[in-house]
Design a protein that fits this description.
There is one protein chain. With 377 residues, the protein is an alpha+beta fold. It has 2 domains: 85 residues, no CATH class; 251 residues, no CATH class. Helix content is 14%, strand content 31%. The protein is built from 7 helices and 15 strands. Strands 1, 4, 5, 6, 7, 8, 13, 14 and 15 form a 9-stranded antiparallel beta sheet that branches. The chain is elongated, with a radius of gyration of 29 Å.
Amino acid sequence: MISRNEQWRAELNAVPYMTTLNGQSFAQAFAGVYRALASGGAVAAQPFFESAMGGPGSSYCAGFASCTAAVASRLRADILNTNVRRVWSGLDSAPGWTLGRTLTSSNPVQTLRVPSDVSGASSNYNGIYLSLGVFDWRGITATSNLTFSRSLGDGGTTQNGITSMDTFHRETDYRPLGQDISWVYNFYALYDLPFYRSQHGVAGRLLGGWSIAPLFRAQSGGPLCVGTGAETFGSWSGGCAVGLSRYTAGNTAHTSVVAAGTAGRDGNASRGGSGINMFTDPQAVYDQFRPMVLGIDGRFGNLLRGFPRWNLDMAIKKTLLVREGIGATLSFEFLNFFNHFAPADPALNVFAPTSWGVVNGQATEPRRVNLGLRLFF
């Protein structure tokens, strides 16, 4: 299935990162400074910043070896945190800025956001569905189905108006969508026990009239984004971090994890954490990622997979016949019949290392029992 011209939200007040001065775009200049700061190396002069900030005679650049050095010093934290909008805003409100007003959030501030809902996004779904069922075979009616599918697109989720990460290039947002769960298995049934249907005698009253209805579901993990800066391309939406090496850590919840480094330490039991983490060595996995950086990366970053999960619900009913046409039905409905703990996906963000991979909740409710009584006559 292919869907086109879906609604998406463009940010008209996005940073015009393709703006070019002295033969260099803002995106290229940002990437050059980021590389230098991230590696701890010397910051080379970037033609864009030298021209945009007025050159050596500008008051903004006074006291620094270059205008680029001034930008790197004054906006160091925002550059390293890939806060592109804040960097741009810090420049266009500074003395020496040569480009004039470029955003409505510039001085004087009129508005921060100008979202516009337009068409043009697309998505696709491909899948195979297998199903097997029986109807009233020896008291059993059941259906079992298995689905394998992929769902990709650049609109976030169909028709939901997600703000684009990159207003100027839709293809940057192309990725597995939130509903892209590759494997889903469902089984549900109703079994009317055939014993003592007439319910004659004491044994019939006790052992007859029972029915069981299980509902089982299992699925593979959904897309899990390693979060990065929320202003990666100067809009109001961020991408996913970039993997520095092949990911091999899997998607299994591990108990009694003690984080030795900064990454994942909030989950340590000694700090009041759950002790459950997606990784046995959170720091080692955390070190495999870096933020998505304007001017370096041009597509949506790395997506992991969340935890697979399963759950069984159950309904058990007992119908007691007093005489023909008169009786009662007692029902027991179990949500999460086995009280199985299914961990919720952890928070993963390169700028929040202490919570890296930490499991703080569960994806399904604890066991709950609903009791019901129906009289009929």
